[in-house]
Amino acid sequence: MKLFRTKTKEATDMQFNGERLFLAAKQDTRSVYSFLDTRREGLYPAEVAERVRKYGKNEIKAKQNNRWFGLLIKAFINPFIGILIFLALISFIIDVLLANPNEREWITVIIITTMVTLSGLLRFTQEWKSKRATEALKKMVNNTVSVFRKDTNLIIEDINIGELVPGDVIFLSAGDMIPADIRITEAKDLFVSQSSLTGESDAVEKMAVLVSESHKTGSVIELNNICYMGSNVISGSARAIVITTAENTYLGTIAKNIVSKDVQTSFDKGINNVSLLLIRFMLVMVPFVFFINGLTKGDWFEAFLFAISVAVGLTPEMLPMIVTSNLAKGAVKMSKHKTIVKNLNSIQSFGAMNVLCTDKTGTLTKDKIILERYLDVQGNEDVRVLRHAYFNSFFQTGLKNLMDQAILSHSHELGFENLEKEYTKDDEIPFDFNRRRMSVVIKDKNNKRQIITKGAIEEVLSICQFVEIEGVPTLITNKVRKSLLETSVELNQQGMRVLAVAQKSWITKDHSFSVEDEFGMVLIGYLAFLDPPKASATTAIKALDEYGVKIKVLSGDNHIVTTAICQQVGIDTKHILLGHQIEKMSDEDLGKLVEKTTIFAKLSPLQKSRIVVILQSQGNTVGFLGDGINDAAALRQADIGISVDTAVDIAKESADIILLEKDLMVLEKGVIEGRKIFGNITKYIKMTASSNFGNMFSVLIASAFLPFLPMLPIHILIQNLLYDISQTTIPFDNVDKEYLQKPRKWDASDLKRFMIRIGPISSIFDIATFLVMWYIFKCTMPEDQSLFQSGWFIEGLLSQTLIVHMIRTRKIPFIQSRASLPVIITTFSVMAIGIIIPFTAFGSSIGLVPLPWSYFPWLVGILLSYCILTQIVKQWYIGKFKRWL
Which of 184, 566, 592, 692 is 20 to 30 Å from 443 at the Cα level? Predict the structure, then answer.
């Protein structure tokens, strides 16, 4: 049977064949290497090159859905453009196919097609620009895997996951993503989370030996010596062989079902609700226009064409473009601050965020840990404590954190450059987040074997029976325990993180060590690490607070160190909750405390996620900033997960946004950018909704009382096209500083309220224009309709365009708040074009006529009155409902 599939169409179209994994799982740990065509030491470079050519890159193509033609097609897929295409098709059939050759009119089809093309191409351009900026930054961030390659230079090296091939031998440790479907050949306390595949949150133990009968269950997921792409290592370490990569993996075959199903955010739901509201509004009101004009004018065909034009005029076809342009603009701007936006909608979530949960290490602190002191239990400097800690960090194969690196930097002063020649490792008991400690078992040249344990004070003390005082093991009494903890507290109060070091010598057992062997240990001393707070942390926290974002620290560290750091950066430390307290609380009890609590310490990963869930259930939009394995669950749960490029693989995979620099000030920029985006999108939605609502009133009234159409279908189409052009620069508009001060969330009820109260204002002045054209300019007969239509065409376009400036700010436009230069240029250019059209040959060709100069004082008066009344209603609305945008 062929174990590997080559890069062919037939292969990628095939369904997942679990038998291949069953066969690999049943091989013993020796024969499995030859069975999978590899060796324990790994592949030669030439073999790797050949397999890359044969099997392709280790990338699931289902994720690569952002090629230019895919984005181009996607840009034209939305309900509004669908409606316009349908209307264009009807116009094509009626005005072109069914019309006499000398009466065929293409202009309606051309204008609708122009609207569709303009909307789609602008959306595509912004998305493509955003994609290119983001991809440029993504090249700076790679998920890597440790692989054994049969090379003369390195035994093991870190490579990009995409370069992995079947047959590669890899090494895994805590925090690693499983980069392919793999067979475990050696494992030590390996626990893997398969939640992305099974939905089960509990970690599963994996081992090298297949558990009896497990290969007969029929489910490949239950194979205990096989791990799958997309899962991640929670704790322990392992050596494994890559069986299949990319689309041939278990995840690859179901990628269309897993990857392509995007979860709808509150942002998506808000946009969809607005879209449905406007579509329902149009579908209900357009038939009224059709029947009223048919009944009053008697020309049902003309009424039908007019209704189609009104439907086009009421369609906010620019909504998808405005939304995408805003988000893409935000992504490009964030990229200039070295921020990778993996999910465009997460930028808006920045603006809505009112609670930021953050880990302490590396976010509030410099993430440059220094081993400040190594002390015996009496508080004296003792190099023996450092030596034992060095053994522990050097020989462990799990995730080496910053404290391990700080310890290992002392190799020269200890003379440990050739340590492996003096000592050998028999075994290790890897770190996990429940024990909060890890142990190694080493042996010297005299066969003296000892367990060395390093970890959090309380957890190490719990397995110690003795404490070494002046070289003599002494039984730990309650009094001694209290004294030992006091020493730790004193160091914590100085802002130092403290680990304990313990050992047990002359161990007779020589293999298969486990957690049960961590007992009867002797505490020998402390390690005190200093990770000073960042200079920018205080400024950033103050700035976020001014923008209405509450900071809550969720740390796995002890509360004394956490409190000391928080005090230094200006975070309130009055209210603290610890992990063991949270464990005993119901969600209801915890919910009563999380709002006022600012520091959560000694948390497990699941407790971090639980706090995020409870905050969300209280109506908060929650951000989470973290970079460790213990942050992955909370990053996934949060409305916006933020990580850094130095984070472990699972943290980067779980995040929506990745910072290339750990700078909290970037978060402030993200919050501001998110609120600008929300503001500009809201402007368009409220402008469109209120304008459409007002126009509908005007059309209904005019249709009922006039002996002719208030405007020809072509007039409405051109007016709508010009209005759409005036709105294309809204993503680049300024937003009032006062608007940026508070978090913003979608509120569908406010939109309905806004439409009903603001929309009819324009109808008042439309009707005023009707009366002026009827009584002042005597447009009362069908032969006068061109003059009437010209007057309403100009007033309608100018009032619609002016609403951009009236709605964009709660202040007095042009005086207290000015739009950006692009918005001013496009709106006033469109207004000028609208005034000029009736005086041109083009205007004449579509049935418009030059207006007498006496019309324009009336126009100025109507528009000025419109602006004044809108401002008065605006102030009333703000006073009554306490909001505008």
Answer: 184
